[in-house]
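Subject: Predicted fold for LuxR C-terminal-related transcriptional regulator, 152 residues

User T.R. writes:
Posting the sequence so we have a shared reference for the thread.
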Amino acid sequence: MTRTILVYAGLLALAAFVLQWLDARMMMRSLSGDLVTALVALGFAALGLWTGIALMQRRQAGPERNEAAIRSLGLSTREVEVLEQLVAGGSNKEIARALAISPNTVKTHLAHLYEKLGVDRRAAAVAEARRLSLVGTGRTGDFGQITHVGDS
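User M.O. replies:
I've generated the structure tokens; pasting them so everyone works from the same file.
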């Protein structure tokens, strides 16, 4: 974040320097005021878009998975995969399809997860997984996306 701010400040300083240089060279007087205003507006718009994109990409990255918590809870690799699908909002059938396992196996993994996380339902497991950073958020693709975790 600090690096982005410094780059943004540096580009603004460079733009101010260029404008002063143009004024000193009398080039500003030969250009119309509307053209100069349009060029400055385009420059600031481009700089704003660049900064916005840089900040959104950084925001999408999200926190990494807490491997120490996974080890201390004794979660297996498959249980973590089931938990990732659960956090994404998948039903038992959807989780089974995504992981190429049976729905009964999903139920077994969920029972083990509930026990290890100390919860008794899906929503509580998702909340606990997020609280402990058991699954990395990665790139979501859509910031406005709301996932609903139903009981199934």
